[in-house]
Design brief:
heterodimer, A: alpha/beta, Rossmann fold, Alpha-Beta Plaits, 11 helices, 14 strands, B: 275 residues, mainly alpha, 74% helix
């Protein structure tokens, strides 16, 4: 079984600017892979190379064993694509757009079923040029779903969608994955990726800074927790004692006079016990777990 | 593969779906019909030769312009608007795009000119005229070739750049050079060649060939051979007295080259560029 996507040492330069820098990536069939990065990090450039819209300066890409350059039509037969920076056809309705997608893929069917699935049934016979951004995005998503593709490639799929639209798109993505489709989607919104992705790749300044599961990324970034402890009386010696504990990174006093401790997740109890031993009463305790956002910031800073 | 036919069908649907598309094609067809309406009012017993004589001046501008206008936005317009990004997200090759558009727009051009000329010919024939079938077919064929040649050149131009504005400049520059300026340059060529001691008094045949290899000049030569043979002119059309390569037959083939070479060149250019 060939991997759904195989990217091997791919570089793309535009003049002296390196948009994608020596990226290696393999995505297995059946995965939901989230591709995270700021605008301009190189996500769309990489996706466009999978589609043969642009050609790599070096390296090669494959989809289901078909070379994306020399055999790009075959590669795209496996794909359903919601690209970035597309325009709709003038003079054609939403139904005709899906019709075109069906003709292109060589499948029969009722366009209305797909338009229904993405929730724009009532606009099917209007010219697509008059659609709102969100409706257009849904229509092109419906075009991507034509013919039950093996691989869904979605570039910033939720852009232009309201929260309800974004949620229903996430649901369809999960349904498609359930059916057996591999999903490769990019986003600069962390919650989107956290909600559906099995694995995450972080793209930063053209380089793939990290690839892992969300849990794995957390662990890699330290898997640390921040404790905020309100106490009745706190002396410097207490802070030193806490800081002396194994697996405590840092301890200090916040502006509000609370004790802030950065430590491994399972060291929480040790910190509380150490305070108790020294007769410090704990009045309140809150914990902050590192969010994907923090991880992202940390990764992008690290690779600078 | 049905890739190109899918592209062609969508292209036609889009063209006739837009108001400017409808109005433009209707206008071109009506000019041909109108010619057939006017000629019988000025000539008794009109024939295709009279028809050609009457509207050739207009056709020499109208058909190249129509072909170029149909072609020049074909690729670059879709590219600038991101529509190619969408089309090429489906299993279509770059060849499907270029040749599908040529076929789609070629069909629109074919129907427009054919309907117009047949309409015009019908008005010549009825009630007093006489339209010889071979002349009609020759006239129709030559005019279609001229249209296809400029359509192919227009589509080739539209693969050269990603900027619609630049494509527009190229197109009108080319229209001016080929259709407006080029046929008037005989005198300049003669002077130039005389200066180089390559000619005296009139252009040598090879220079006539080179100067006459531009599509609208070729079109004139084809018509002068097959539709209006009694009309002996000098310059690019020497009539049957000239050498074989200045006859109508080779001119037909050269017009064919003006369709084929830009089409292939445009495809090769488009195949290797990033969108």
């Amino acid at each position: 079984m060939p991997p759904a996507i195989q990217i091997h040492d791919v570089t793309k330069r535009f003049g002296s600017f390196t948009a994608v820098d020596r990226v290696d990536l393999q995505i297995e069939q059946g995965e939901v892979f989230g591709f995270l990065g700021h605008n301009g990090a190189g996500k769309s450039t990489l996706i466009n190379m999978l589609l043969d819209h642009i050609r790599p300066t070096a390296g090669d890409l494959e989809a289901f064993g078909a070379d994306c350059q020399t055999d790009s039509v075959e590669a795209r037969k496996h794909m359903g694509v919601l690209p970035d920076g597309y325009g709709v056809y003038s003079g054609l309705t939403g139904r005709q757009h899906v019709q075109f997608a069906m003709e292109s893929k060589g499948v029969d069917g009722e366009p209305l079923n797909l338009l229904d699935r993405v929730g724009i049934t009532e606009a099917a016979d209007r010219a697509a040029e008059g659609y709102s951004k969100g409706m257009t995005q849904r229509m092109v998503f419906a075009m991507a779903l034509v013919g039950e593709p093996d691989l869904l490639i979605l570039d910033e799929p939720t852009s232009g969608l309201d929260p309800a639209g974004a949620r229903s798109m996430r649901e369809i993505i999960l349904e498609e994955n359930e059916r057996g489709a591999t999903v490769f989607f990019s986003s600069h919104i962390l919650e989107q990726i956290e909600a559906v992705a099995d694995r995450v790749g972080i793209m930063h300044q053209g380089q793939l800074a990290a690839v892992d599961t969300i849990g794995g990324l957390r662990d890699m970034a330290g898997g640390e927790t921040r404790l905020l402890i309100a106490t009745d009386n706190l002396e410097d010696s207490h802070i030193d004692a806490v800081e002396a504990l194994d697996e405590v990174d840092q301890a200090g006093i916040t502006d509000e006079g609370r004790l802030a401790v950065t430590c491994a997740k399972d060291t929480k109890m040790d910190v509380l016990l150490a305070l108790d031993e020294r007769g410090v009463e704990v009045l309140d305790l809150t914990t902050e777990e590192a969010s994907l956002e923090d991880l992202f910031v940390e990764y992008t800073r690290r690779s600078e | 593969m049905t890739g190109w036919s899918t592209v062609a069908r969508k292209d036609i649907r889009g063209l006739i779906g837009s108001r400017t598309g409808k109005a433009g094609t209707a206008f071109v067809a009506l000019v041909f019909v109108f010619g057939g309406y006017i000629v019988p009012t000025t000539t008794s017993d009109p024939t295709m030769t009279d028809y050609d004589g009457f509207i050739r001046g207009i056709v020499l501008f109208l058909v190249p312009l129509f072909g170029l206008l149909l072609g020049y936005r074909a690729v670059v317009g879709e590219r600038a608007a991101g529509r190619l990004t969408l089309t090429l997200s489906f299993p279509h090759s770059r060849a499907d795009i270029v040749f599908g558009k040529m076929v789609g727009r070629g069909l629109v051009l074919f129907v427009t000119i054919t309907v117009g000329i047949l309409g015009g010919a019908a008005l010549i024939e009825y009630p007093f005229g006489r339209v010889a079938l071979d002349r009609l077919v020759s006239y129709l064929g030559a005019t279609l070739l001229l249209g296809f040649a400029f359509l192919a050149v227009g589509i080739a131009l539209s693969t050269l750049t990603a900027s619609l504005r630049r494509a527009t400049v190229f197109t009108f520059g080319l229209f001016f050079l080929f259709v407006v300026a080029w046929p008037q340059l005989t005198g300049f060529f003669l002077q130039g060649l005389e200066y180089l001691n390559l000619a005296s008094d009139e252009l040598p045949n090879w220079a006539v060939f080179v100067h006459g290899a531009e599509p609208s000049m070729l079109y004139k030569r084809v018509l002068d051979t097959y539709v209006s043979p009694n009309k002996l002119t000098s310059g690019a059309a020497l009539g049957s007295a000239g050498p074989w390569y200045l006859q109508g037959g080779p001119a037909v083939w050269l017009l064919g080259c003006w369709i084929l070479l830009p089409a292939i060149g445009g495809y090769l250019q488009f195949r290797r560029t990033d969108l």
